[in-house]
Amino acid sequence: MPDRILIDAGPLVALFHSGDNHHKRVKEFFIKNHYSFISTLAVFTETTYFLSVNINALRDFYEWVMHKGVIISDINQNDIPRIVELTEKYSDLPMDFADATLVIAAEKSGIRKIISLDKDFDIYRLPGREKIKNVYK
C-alpha cells in the first residue's frame, strides 16, 4: 500500500490543466511517486473553481476523484473552532480555509507529508510545533 500524503489544490490544478506553469513538473512528480492522496472538500472546491475554465480538464479531474485518485477527508462543524484558531494564528500570511482544513486533516490522520506549490506549509505547525513536510521542492 502506498504512503498516504496530503495534497493541496495547486498540484491538482497543475496536473489537470496542461496550460499551468507547473503542469510538466507536477505530472513528472505523479509519474515518479506513487502515493495515496488525501485532501479535503475545501481543496476539491478550490480545484474545481480553477479548472472550470476548461471543461475537459474539469471532467478528467472529476473522473480521477471518482476512481479514488484522491480521498476526501472529513472536515465538519466540530472543526470550526480549530479553523478559527489556525486562521487567527496565521493571519499575517493569511491562512485560507482550504489550508486550514489540510492542517486539520494532518492532525486527524497523522499524515505529515504534503504536496503543495505554496510555501505556506513551510510555516504552518501542528501541535508540538511539528512540521508538515512539503515533498514538492
Question: Would you write up a description of this structure?
Answer:
The protein is an alpha/beta fold and 137 residues long. The protein has helices at 9-16, 23-32, 41-51, 55-66, 80-89, 97-109, and strands spanning 4-7, 36-40, 70-73, 113-115, 133-134. Strands 3-2-1-4-5 form a 5-stranded parallel beta sheet.
Main beta-sheet strand count, sense and barrel state: 5 strands, parallel
Mean pLDDT: 95
> What's the total helix number?
6
What is the string of helix and strand elements?
A: EHHEHHEHHEE
Strands in their spatial order, largest beta sheet: 3-2-1-4-5
Stretches where pLDDT falls below 50 for ≥5 residues? none
Q: Helical residue percent?
A: 40-55%
Shape: globular
Number of strands: 5
Q: In whole angstroms, how far apart are the ends?
A: 24 Å
Q: What percent of residues are in strands?
A: 5-15%
Secondary-structure-derived class: alpha/beta
State Rg.
14 Å
